[in-house]
Amino acid sequence: MKAIAAKDEAALALLYDRYRVILFGLLMRILNSREEAEDVLQEVFLQVWRKAGDFDEERGRPFTWLVTLGRSRGIDRLRTLSARERVVEAGAREASEDVSDAATDAFKSEQRGLITNALAQLPDDQKRPIMLAYFEGLSQSEIATRLGAPLGTVKTRMRTGLMKLRELLAGKAESFGF
Amino acid sequence: MVHDDYKEMIPARALSALDAAEERALNEHLDNCSECRRELAEWETTAAALAIAADPAEPSPRVREQILNEIRNDRSAAQVVPFRSASRNIWSSFGSLGAIAAVVVFVVLLIGLAVQWRQNRVVKDELARSQEFLQLVTTPGAKVMELRGTDLGADATAKLAYDKAGHAMLMADKLPTVPQGKAYQLWFIVGKNPPMPGKTFVPDKEGKGMLKDQVPATAIDSAIFAITMEPAQGVDAPTGPIYLRSSEIN
User: Fold this and answer.
1) Do B127 and B156 lie in a common domain?
2) Would B175 disulfide with which of A2, A134, B44, B203, CB 3.0-4.6 Å?
3) Structurally, how many domains does chain B consist of?
């Protein structure tokens, strides 16, 4: 990040090469449109280029900053698109799963397995509020409405699920390259 | 609300799932509570892991090109320095300072110009190399690998860019100087096969070095790159210690 803040283009290219598959996968999941996801991906890296000096390494690793920024931009875009305007490309989902060999190499199934296994260990009623918040950007009130559950219950389940997830991932952050 | 109430809200804040009023209240508390800020950073790390639960996907190569083109435009715009005209005319001082002073000024100017010309040449060379490197990086399908210093070259760093055809360019910095008769040599390592030799280079006194080479076809997709110190003419198999090696990204 220091190199990017010092305007080292190659450092940004390296960051892009390292994280594009994860970030684009996240944006595809949020937006379900290659066109929108690619547009936001570009915005994210341009923001990284312009704001890398704001990165505070005491507040987390570059991965966390990048993903938090990417998700936030993705959710913002999602909110600005009406359901009608959303370009849901037929086959977008299939395209998103068509990962190149290089991308597969860069994304070891072992690492992905850690998070999917951890999520699989959460009861569905704890996992759903977390997934709705993370991938659809819904607030706790909106989740309560969507699930037809009391707000207090949603809050408790979300918190319990996240605490369990943190326990399951404890000590594994390094292996993610976070 | 008290501290513990805010603390309970932090996990949901890491998912940006708080309702607007709650988020505003928590944000105010965060401004004054370092403990909660630390805790939020921890929860954000947990939340970021969820990104990996999404199916990985490959964006079009066009996105990479567009990003790099855009930042190059940014840089060009930032580097445009307005040309300043001289604030006074040096020649006008001849009359007032007299012949001796004029000669001194003239000689000093000449020396200054010579130094500047030399510095400009170095800067121009470096700029040309950087542009060439950038051109390679922006080629569709190009890869950039970062090489990091081992214990022997702890401060050293290098970037190796190469395109799909294997045209490669290495730019190294802060390498230790090499003794007479020695040079750094690039190696391509694929799996457990013997390292394949690349070219040699000698860095300047600041430890900067540049090398153009051809990545062997078998190494384009999955190679580790290393730099050792070897006899200046290069060797077929590494004999010296490793100073730099590519990080195994994943």
Assistant:
1) no
2) B203
3) 3
**A122 vs B contacts (CB less than 8 Å):** none
Here the tokens at position B190 are 């694929």
Q: Are B75 and A100 inside 8 Å of each other by CB?
A: no
SS3 category, B149:
strand
Q: pLDDT of B20-77, one tens digit each?
A: 899 999 999 998 899 999 999 889 988 998 998 888 889 999 999 999 998 888 766 6
B21 in A contact zone (CB under 8 Å): no
β-strand B182-189 against B143-149: which pairing, if any?
A: unpaired
CA dist B171 and B112 (Å) reads 30
Q: What is the residue extent of each domain of chain A?
A: 1-106, 108-178
Test mutation, A67, A100, A145, A168, chain B, max B CBs within 10 A: A67
B123: containing domain = 91-138
The H or E element spanning position B188 is strand B182-189
Please tell me the class of the A1-106 domain.
mainly alpha
ipTM of this complex: 0.82
C-alpha to C-alpha distance for A75 and A67, rounded to whole angstroms:
12
Report the alpha-carbon distance of residue B77 to residue A73 in Å, rounded. Answer: 26
pLDDT tens for the 178 residues of chain A, in order? 778 888 888 889 989 998 899 999 999 999 989 999 999 999 999 999 988 877 777 667 788 889 999 999 999 888 887 544 544 443 444 333 344 444 444 445 666 788 888 999 999 999 999 999 999 999 999 999 999 999 999 999 999 999 999 998 886 655 454 4
Q: Are B249 and B223 in contact (CB under 8 A)?
A: no
CATH classification for the domain delimited by A108-178, as one of 1.10.8.60, 3.40.50.450, 3.30.830.10, 1.10.10.10: 1.10.10.10
Q: If residue A2 lies in a helix (H) or strand (E), which one and from where to where?
A: helix A2-5
Inter-chain CB proximity A9 and B72 less than 8 Å: yes
Put simply, whether B121 touches A (Cβ < 8 Å) is no
Tell me if A52 sits within 8 A of B33, measured CB to CB: no
Q: Which residue matches tokens 């399908």?
A: B141
pTM above 0.80, yes or no: no
